[in-house]
TrEMBL record:
Protein name, per record: Phosphate/phosphite/phosphonate ABC transporter substrate-binding protein
Keywords: Signal
Signal sequence residues: 1-28
Stored Pfam families: Phosphonate-bd
SUPFAM superfamilies cross-referenced by the UniProt entry: Periplasmic binding protein-like II
Source organism per UniProt: Oricola cellulosilytica
């Protein structure tokens, strides 16, 4: 009969070997099951990006995961959301509302990281900006015309519709004189030439930071007019749209991709500029709770027939 301590060592060794046998194939199985890791990106205005536009980013992901990677260009945001919700892609670059809508459809994705601007802003919030000479206080809004829009835009429409109240009533029921514009340029032009005295715009923000961030519509307005404008209302902040991944993928995949994104601007600047050319400040970890503000907007948008 073998000594007890000998049997214990043999059992411990067998356990280690069994764990290795069980874990090693499991680690490889997800690669075999997927075959190719697919990244979804929405076309801009229905036009596909030129060949090679995302090649550096594709290579970065392929090397990180040690497997083939393809870029799928969806014809628009809705097609991208559908592809993610139906698991035809594993990874997607989404807007904040795109993430909220996809999550509402399937609860099958989670954010791993989101971009930041070069100044450190991590999102936006809607603001009501007013000409101080015509509407210095919120009570003055009942006497002037206010610009909003474009329809379906987060800062100019959705956030004000959900979060702005005047005399206890939501924007749609407030009785205020609202004119919808087709775009931010038209909104600014109407504010400058006096056709409206106030407008729902947006500004860059970093929740919890005391820093004031430049850029955005307010900076454009300052270049167009010498008038004095004041902020009469601000919405809750919304994080920039995330890079999101299927929730059912192994945690090692999520960890590896998150780590890659957080160092992408330093380690692979060409890949970073390919996938985040406008903000340019790298990536920070993102979580589902960062998008609670827009998650609350989805039911209202769906019921109202919004985009």
């Amino acid at each position: 009969m073998a000594p007890r301590h000998g049997r214990n060592k043999m059992m411990a060794l067998a356990s280690v070997v069994l764990c290795c046998l069980l874990s090693a194939p499991a680690s490889a199985d997800w690669r075999e099951d997927l075959g190719t890791f697919r990244i979804g990106i929405a076309m801009r205005n229905g036009e596909s990006y030129p060949p090679g536009r995302f090649e550096e980013f594709r290579k970065a992901v392929s090397e990180t995961l040690a497997m083939p990677v393809e870029i799928f260009q969806a014809r628009d945001a809705l097609a991208l959301i559908d592809a993610q919700a139906s698991s035809r892609i594993e990874y997607s670059v989404l807007s904040a509302m795109g993430y909220a809508t996809a999550y509402e459809l399937c609860q099958c994705i989670e954010p791993i990281a989101a971009p930041v601007s070069t100044s450190g802003a991590s999102g936006i919030r809607s603001i009501l900006l007013a000409d101080k000479a015509r509407a210095a206080r919120t009570v003055d809004l009942g006497k002037v015309t206010i610009a909003a829009g474009p329809a379906g835009a987060l800062g100019g429409d959705l956030l004000p519709t959900a979060g702005f109240f005047w005399r206890g009533k939501a924007l749609a029921e407030s009785g205020l004189d609202i004119v919808m514009t087709p775009g931010i340029t038209e909104t600014l032009e109407m504010l400058v030439d006096g056709r409206v005295a106030a407008a729902f715009l947006w500004e860059y923000v970093r929740p919890g930071a005391a820093t004031s961030f430049g850029g955005g519509p307010k900076a454009r307005l300052a270049e167009m007019s010498d008038a004095q404008y004041g902020v009469l209302w601000r919405s809750r902040p919304v994080r920039f749209g995330p890079h999101a991944i299927r929730r059912d993928l192994p945690s090692e995949v999520k960890t590896a991709l998150r780590r890659m994104l957080l160092s992408l601007d330093e380690d692979r600047p060409l890949a970073h500029d390919a996938i985040s050319p406008l903000l340019g400040g790298g990536f920070e970890a993102a979580a589902h709770d960062d998008y609670r503000t827009v998650l609350g907007l989805v039911p209202a948008v769906v019921e109202g027939g919004g985009d």
